[in-house]
Each structure stands twice: as structure tokens, then as C-alpha cells.
Amino acid sequence: MSAIDFTTPSHSGANPFPPELLLAICAHVYCAGIPPLQPSLDPLFVSDHGIPTSLPSSLPPANWPEHVVRKTLLSLSLTNRAWHEAAKPWLWRKVEVRMPRSWLSLIDAVLGGEDDEAAEEQVAIVVGQTLKEAENAVLAARNILGEQADPESAEKLHQTILATLGGPGGPIPLELLSPPASREPSPRRVRAKSKSPVRWKVMRSINDAFQAVLGRDEVGVYVPIPEDPSPGRYLRHLDFNHFRTIGMRRSVEEGVNSRFVTGGRLEAILKEMPNLTTFGATEYMDGALTLPVLKELFLRGSTSRGRRSRGRTPDSADSDEEEKERLRYCKELEAVDFTGCVSAVFVQALTEFVNTYLTPAADAEDDSAAGRRSRDNTHVLHGLERLGFYGAKSLAPTVLHQFILACPSLTHLDLSCTRITPELLASLGGSSLRLHSLSLGRCVRLTGESICDFFITAKAVRDVRELSLYGDATFPCPLSEDEVREFLSRAPCITSGKLRYLDLSSARLTREVLLDVCPAQPHLRSLGLSHIPQLPLDAISEFVKTKAPGLEVLTLAGTSPELGYAQVRVPLRAASLALHAKIIRPLCSAPVSFSLSAPVTAPVQPPTRLRVIELSPALLGGLGAGAGTWRVVKSKGGRGWYVDVASGWVTSPTHVDSQKSRGQGQSGDHLRRDLPRDHHLRVEMERLSDANGNVNSGVGWHARKMEILHGQGLLGREDGLYGAVSFAYQG
């Protein structure tokens, strides 16, 4: 059977395939670039190594790189009009702002320019096009019903619609109902008084007018809401993770007074994105996060409720009601990442937003009717599921607490390096949250008692699968030895044995607590035990071997007296020998067996899956070129890892066929320890080692920042500024 060419139009000029099929193909192309729910933990290699697989595979990669997906969709959109209409929603679905010029191009594409007159002309064009398309649909429907649709009836319908739209009290000004070329220039027109409606209102007004006219004529024809030609309605994802202005040779004055990402521009473009659900900000543009921008982000959706302001004039009341009506037709945000946002503009805007919309009024504590109305009028962000405030140290604890408590649907929460206090944990303990991923690393105001009580008693964290309590020598984990013992023995998220990621760096762990108190963690894939100088290597090795055999990544930076810590001076050579003798050899090497009489069996596998160990820079320097298949991989920052380049998750047709023959489908695990020298994954890993730190910002293991935008949590992968925070920064 010959292959079908979906890109070849028929001889008649029309595409022979239905639009739904083309749209489904483009959807599959887009979904091929979405990271899987079960990642491989390794960096994403962008070379062409085969078709993405559903297994947690590093090679072929589990998903296509972003540029491959966009190039494929762009090629499809250039084929013909049918493919263009099918690919356009997916090309615009996710937008990552990288350079200032691309940001300005995005504004032009979505807004059609910032000039008021140009915007009004565009609305007029939209009105004319939608009127024509809707009239054609009505006339075609009348023909189907057996009625004659002559030119006179078409003109009569047109005039009736225009009278409904532009008559007394009509929703659209009369000047917009005439074609732009036929208008007479009027120099006396005052631009400040021009109130051209936004496109969403134009579309809905045209639809309402058609339904009213057809209802009066008793014609049983329904006309759907016309589609907005602006691409803003397709955008679901907008982030500034890769946005940079460094290297543009701009003066300090230009950087202050001539910003690219301003609050006005960001607010205007957000108003054209009614279906936006994911937003990511960084420190390079947090000066644009003004109060109107935050209102545009969070006061969306049909469940939003607003409290009336005092002392409003009738005009402001009407405008507020119109804004509320527009926001009700927008989708609520599902994921927001404010990593590193510390500017005074953002802090002041979020403080004012919380005090105005999220904080109950002073009389909201009583049970009177006024108190109940005040509580009902306070906003609740029901749609927000994933929230990140990593490094937002400038936010006051009360503001941060109130904002988080207004999000009852959170599943992923990153509060590392913030000033939250035990009061927030106490409030979350009585909330209805059900968190799956939580990061509380380096929260200097938390106490060990509050953390211990929270994880033992709170229902909100019983189902946590990824947990970070990271601390270092500067800001250690506040848990005492007794609190660590109680936490590991009683916290439901620990005793369930379902954790996949755990970081207890700088906690007061001892041999007895680790081996006798801590329960088994068979699902654990990444474990952080850095900055624990007194913890011996043999205790760590015994714990991994007996209680966490599925562990793949282990961090030991600043840990163990055998590696030169705990005020014990150990030569680098002795530390390297201890690492291989007590960690790598017993955990990563198969036991040796030899027999002349025993039958040939499958090779014995190592007792664990450990293949990546994070170490301090000094110890990595002492390891040199490594030993055997173990090599040193350094990030752009201060972190580095000792990696077994011959180990990794791979997928081969032979393995998939064998899984199917055993009735396991494609869900079997396949971690190889013996990759040959010419294997693509081993070649890529050795290339990272040879780069000596000159690698992408997304290269690394055991992330210290939670992946928010896609919902992968602490096992997710990121690049750009988010990747640097996850894998490069020491703190």
C-alpha cells in the first residue's frame, strides 16, 4: 500500500482531506514536543537520534526539541491554505520570548501595532469581514431550507444587521461599520474620546445582532460566534525564561527609560490572550509586572469575584463592569512562575493586589450579613494549580501567605529562598490543598518544629511525591536530630514509601537514623544528602542498597569525613579511593561470579541503579579524567557531577519487541549499564564531559528549582534562566 501524501492538494484546488484530520495531525506533531510525565532525568539531546518514545528514555529522547516541532509545523503551514489553518493554532499555542526584537514582533502580530488609529482601522476590517462571512452563512442556510436568497434579500439582511449594530444604543460606533477606504477624513475627531470596542466584544455583538434579527424574522438558522482573526486567542503558554537584553550595548539610561517589556505593552498583549493558562516571568522583566498586569493575569475566569471599590463615579463603574464581563470570558491561569522576581515594581504591585482583591475586609470575621458579603466578594484563584516563587526574597511574608492561601487547588508549590514563616505552614495544615510537589529549600524563617508538625499532621502534604528541604552550610536545614528522627518515622509522605525526589541536604542525619528509622523508599530516583559532614559513606551505601535500590542520582557535595569534611583533612587521592571503594564499586558494579559447571544464565545486574553522583568542585578536580566509564560533567555554574557515561535509559526495537512478547507492552524499564563506545548516548555524555563546563544551562541532575510551567515538578528539566537556577547555581 503506497503512502498517502497529505500535503498534495487535489486537481480542483481543494484539499481532499477533512480539516479535522489535518488538525489532528498538527496536534500530534505539537504533542511530540511535550515532555513526558515520567522523565529520564538526563539532559535533552537535540541531535536526530530517532522517533520519540513513550518510555523514560534518554535516547531516543522522550520528546522532540522545541525547534524541531516548530519547524515541522511551519513547513506544514506553508503547504496550502488548509494546512495553514490547521497548523496555525499549534504554532501560536506556546510562545517563548527570547530577544527584544522578537518581543516587539510579537506585539505587532497580536496587537496589529500600538497606534490608536491603526487599531481602530483593524477593528473596522474585522467587522466588515465577519459581517460578510456571517451573511453568507445565513443565505446558504436559507437556500438549504428552500428559500430564495436573491440580492435584494441579501441587501435587506445587511441593512438590518447594520441598523442593529450601529443604531441608538448599538454596541459598535457607526464609523466602524463603513469600510476604512470610504471614510471621510475628519481632523476634528478627538482620539482620546474614541472608544472602539475590543475584538472579543465585536464578535459577540455581531453574533447577538444576527440572533436577534433572525429571531424576529422567525428563521430557524443559528450562526456561531465568528472567529477572531488575531492569533492572540491561540496562545496558551507565554514565558520570558530565555529573554535577555545583555550584550545589546545599551546605556544605563536606555535600560531604565527605554525598556522593551513595559507594563503597558504586557497588559495590552495579555488582553488579546483570552485562553492563556501558563505564564512565566523572570528578573529580566519583572519591572513590567505592574498592578494592571497582575489584575489581567489573576482576575480571569467565570469563578472570579470582585469587591466593589468605594467612591466610584458612574463612568468608572461602567468601565469596571465591562472589564469584569471581558475577564469572565477568559480562561483562568493554571501555572505561574515568578522565579527571581524581586523588583520594587513587582513587590509593590503584588502587595496592592493582595490587599485589594485577596484580603477580606476588616468586618469579614463577624457573622453579620455585611461580613458574609465581604467574604463572598474576596477573590479565590480556583484555577491556579502550579505556583513558583523561587528566590522572591523581597516579598513580605504576609503578602506571600495571603496569596498562597487564596489558591485552594495547588498541586505544585515552590517557595525556596523566600521569607515564609511557620504561620503559613500552620494555615496550610488546615486548608484543603493536596500537594504533589513541594520545595521549601533555604527558607530561613522556618523552624524545625513547624516543619515537623506540618508534615506529620497536615493532610495537604500526605500525598507529596517530591519534597525538597535543601539547606547548605550558610543556611542549614532547621530540623534538629530529634526532629529529623520524628519526621522520618511519622510523616505520611515518608512512611508511604512513594517519594520519587527527596532532598535532606544539611539535615542532622546519623547512621542510626538513616538505617534504622528511615523507611524504605523503593520509588526514589533522586536523593540529596549534601552538606552533612558527619555522615559516613558506608551508611549511605547501605541505605541505598537496602532501602532505595532504584536510586539514580545522589548528591554528596560537602558530605562525609572520608571525602575530607567534618574537620578531617583527607588527601584528594584518598577521598577518590574512598568514593570508588564505598559507593561506586558496591552499588554500581555487578558481583563477580564464576563457575565451570553452572549453566549459562543472564548476566548479573548491579544491586542499584545509581549512575550520577554530585560532588564538590574540589573533589571533582581531584578525580581528573575519571576511572573506567565514570567521567566528570560540570555545569556553567559551580555544580558538577561524577557520571557513568556507559549507563542510561535507552530504547531499542529489540527491547520493545521482547517486552511485547512478555505481555508488558512498552512500559518496561530498560536501564543499560554496558553501552558500547560508539553508542549515541555514550558519545553525547562524553561530549558533555569534554566540554569542561561549556555546556547548555539545562545540563545537570537533581534540580533545585521546581519545573512549574509543564507540571513536571522537581524531576522536570528546564533550560534558559530556569535551567541555570535548577542546575548551575550553588545556592
Model description:
This protein is of the alpha/beta class and 731 residues long. Among the domains are: 74 residues, no CATH class; 102 residues, no CATH class. It has a 14-stranded mixed β-sheet. Strand 13 and strand 14 form a beta hairpin. Helix 1 packs parallel to helix 3. It is globular. About 7% of the residues have low confidence. This is F-box domain-containing protein.
Note the beta-strand portion: 5-15%
* Helix-strand makeup class: alpha/beta
- What is the number of beta strands? 16
Radius of gyration over all CA atoms, rounded: 30 Å
Protein name: F-box domain-containing protein
GO biological process, one term: SCF-dependent proteasomal ubiquitin-dependent protein catabolic process
Region (Disordered): 304-324, 653-677
Biased composition (Polar residues): 653-664
Summary of the model, kept short:
39% of the residues lie in helices and 7% in strands.
Give the SSE map.
Blueprint: H1 19-31, H2 66-77, H3 81-91, E1 94-96, H4 100-111, H5 116-144, H6 151-166, H7 199-216, E2 237-239, H8 252-257, H9 263-271, E3 278-280, H10 291-298, H11 314-328, E4 335-337, H12 344-358, H13 369-376, E5 386-388, H14 397-405, E6 412-414, H15 422-429, E7 437-439, H16 448-457, E8 466-468, H17 481-490, H18 492-495, E9 501-503, H19 511-517, E10 526-528, H20 537-547, E11 553-555, H21 572-588, E12 612-615, H22 617-623, E13 630-634, E14 640-644, E15 648-649, H23 653-661, E16 671-672, H24 680-690, H25 720-727
Parallel strand pairs: 1-2, 2-3, 3-4, 4-5, 5-6, 6-7, 7-8, 8-9, 9-10, 10-11, 11-12
Antiparallel strand pairs: 12-14, 13-14, 15-16
Helix pairs in contact: 1-3, 2-3, 5-7, 6-7, 9-10, 10-12, 15-16, 16-17, 20-21, 21-22
